[in-house]
Here is the input.
Amino acid sequence: MAANKKFAGYTVSFLILGVLYMFFYSGLQNDHLNILTPYLADKYGWSNMQITNPVTIAGIFVIISYLLIGAAFVKFGVRVIMVPCMVVLGLATMGVGFAGENYTLYAVSLFLVRLLVVPLQMGGFMLAANWFIKFRGRVLGVITAGSPLFSVVGISVLTFLATSVGITQGYLVLGIIMLALAAGTWFLLKDTPEAAGLFPDGASEAPKSETGKTETITVGKLLSELRAWQLIITYGILQFVIMAMMAFMAVRYNSLTPEGHQGPPLFVSALPYLSAGAILGIPMSYVLGWIDDKLGSIKASLVLNVLYLFAVVPLAIMPVGGNVTLMLVWAFGVACMTGGVPTMHPCVTSYVYGRKLYQSANKWIMMIQAIPMAFSVAFMAAMHDAGKLTQAYYILLVLLGVCFVTLLTMWKMPDANAADRAYKKS
Here is the structure.
């Protein structure tokens, strides 16, 4: 790959922009709610449901947006759809900060933010699937480090701003960076290597595994296949769990703050552990990508499923007042989870359907997966308001067990692009 200087230049641009895609996707999808929810509840007296309802409502619209955006990517190209969405996303991010007590502006802005992070994720995934086959896992492992990076940098910065000068400045900076990111996407990238006169991975010829392959798959055929439903169930669960976990980290910790506690709430005390654990866990997204490249996506997905336990179990058993060891394990798990899902979701879909069929299949798969994910925040909010937040984490563990068993049924599933991969020989 590095031997082809032109391809290497596009790769470097994609790696830098891709890290930022995932930084903002993870941060603006749910991570920022850990700062926004307690801040607005304290400042304006809004309830958790009132604060997060725009996200839940947007999640319902996200269901169909996966289909529409995926179809638009296939028909018109990635950047021509992605860039205008990023511009509106940047403006909406600023709107969240400037809304103040204006709930209508707040709700509309937050709704658009949740909706328009989808093109960031899908666009980054599709660009990676288009440009890389042999190195797909490792490239995705690099760019998805942006997700846990928000846990190290973004949450701490937003927390500092919220407690010092207010939250407006933080969202203004995020919005400006998003507008710059849109410009970089337009001028520095191409939708496919072929559009730049190149081949995937910087190879000197077209992929062997794509000879004579069709580039579309009908929804009827897709939904009649067991492999599609295996993908939908496994990664639908993983996406539901990550959304629930990330949106309610602060609420969970603050609910465990001892009565009569003096000083900042427990989540503020947990932030240093989150940063330390995220730093330790960030390399795991690359490790998962390496496993994908060398051993296949199913084995890497099973490893990811196990790593989820490091994030969920500590919050299920965390005592009042917190526990240092559990906080460190939780933080490591959060980094593995937030970096691992973005790495493995496009990897496993490409593994099953191949580069050419990736988006045709992915738009339907992600749309169906978005149905339960749309209600993940509402599920956690309802359990919290019912005084059963601890039980919610045990329910998440049961779902992870279902995911693990379903992944085991996929053990012998073949790789659609096997002829162009570089698996380790057993």
User: Anything to note?
Assistant: The mean pLDDT is 89. The longest helix spans residues 324-373.
